[in-house]
Design a protein that fits this description.
The protein contains 9 helices and 9 strands. The protein has 216 residues and is of the alpha+beta class. Strands 3-4-5 form a 3-stranded mixed beta sheet. It has a two-stranded antiparallel sheet with strand order 1-2. The protein has a two-stranded antiparallel ribbon with strand order 6-7.
Length: 216
């Protein structure tokens, strides 16, 4: 913006700006929206994008409105969000390698609603799989099932393409199972035989939700 380092220091001393981190400032009492700040973080974190429940929420797929929503961010490499960011926006960052993809060519991740200057966001279908991958770890099964109930209009071709490249058997099987349980139109159009569902043996896991058994 044409503000030199010396002038920025002057603004901070005068109380016109607050220093957050190297090269990062905000106006006093400024409660910025997370969208432009996410765009800033994307310059510093490889393949950082808004995903999971946050992406679903932005696209209107939600079970309830949380009083204190947590911003779910994913990236290619392990990293820690800066303190100045998490103090303003409750957020979680996780390294995700859920699909056969490469940096610079993430599957179905793009600018939110294709708007200029918007952050990178998972498509709804990818965001659902990101949520399902966390079941049994950080994501309650009940909420995942309830979110799946709101996926009636999901694009089967996009979901199929993502499932074919998914490296997590649990995620693939859980998506198919919840889709069938909720009678989603897309579930009837997916052929499990053409998806990476693993061996013929059941996938079994025990968590705080109890015993989860996923058949091929």
């Amino acid at each position: 913006m044409g503000i030199s380092a010396d002038l920025a220091v002057h603004y901070v001393r005068a109380g016109w700006l607050n220093w957050l981190a190297r090269g990062v400032y905000c106006k006093p009492n400024d409660h910025s929206h997370c969208i432009p700040v996410c765009c800033l973080l994307q310059r510093r974190f490889e393949e950082l994008h808004v995903g999971g429940k946050t992406a679903l929420d932005w696209y209107g797929v939600r079970h309830y409105v949380s009083q204190k929503p947590v911003l779910h961010l994913s990236g290619w490499a392990a990293a820690k969000l800066p303190t100045w960011f998490t103090e303003r926006f409750p957020a979680e960052y996780h390294r995700k390698r859920l699909f056969n993809e490469t940096p610079g060519a993430l599957l179905y991740v793009g600018s939110f609603e294709k708007r200029g200057g918007a952050p990178q966001v998972s498509a709804p279908e990818r965001a659902l799989l990101e949520v399902l991958s966390e079941v049994g770890v950080r994501q309650p099964l009940k909420e995942a099932r309830q979110l799946t109930e709101s996926t009636y209009n999901f694009r089967v071709d996009v979901l199929r393409a993502l499932l074919q490249q998914c490296t997590n058997v649990k995620t693939v099987r859980l998506c198919l199972q919840l889709g069938r349980e909720n009678s989603m139109p897309w579930a009837a159009k997916l052929d499990p035989a053409k998806l990476p569902t693993g061996s013929d043996r059941p996938w079994v896991s025990r968590s705080s939700d109890g015993l989860l058994v996923l058949k091929p």
